[in-house]
Amino acid sequence: MRRCWIAVASAEHVRRGRAEGFMQVCHGKAAPLRRLGPGDWVVYYSPTERFGGSTPLRAFTAIGTVRDGEPYQVDMGDGFLPFRRDVRWLAAQEAPIMPLLDRLAFSAGKRNWGYPFRFGLVELAEPDLRLIAAAMGAVLPE
């Protein structure tokens, strides 16, 4: 069964992953990535432009499907050894979350809608994924 997920990372990190065909979450931890399966949908939400930055972005920044394979570790050369998963990213535009908040099941009527994002990876209902994809101009296969 295909599942849908929201992953959380700064836009600069998401853009690098899009360019190189991968995703990573939760500061490179493997366990969250093991929850995803091949064919699962993932959409990235970026609260900020830069990691550790204070300038808010609050936008969906990437959408794609998880490729076959398990999480794998990479050496960033500075002692950081994050785990990643390969993703087939779709052509999409970044889309602000604010206009969608009242229409998404996970946030409608909720004042603290961003609270679950603290965990870095949150399961998402498919209708919400489709609404986000439309806002991003991404074409999802049926």
From TrEMBL:
Gene3D superfamilies: ph1033 like domains (3.10.590.10). It holds the Pfam family EVE. CDD domains: EVE-like. InterPro entries: EVE_domain (IPR002740), PUA-like_sf (IPR015947), UPF0310 (IPR022996). Residues 4-134 form the EVE domain. HAMAP family: UPF0310. NCBIfam families: PRK02268.1-2. Belongs to the UPF0310 family. This is UPF0310 protein FuraDRAFT_0321.
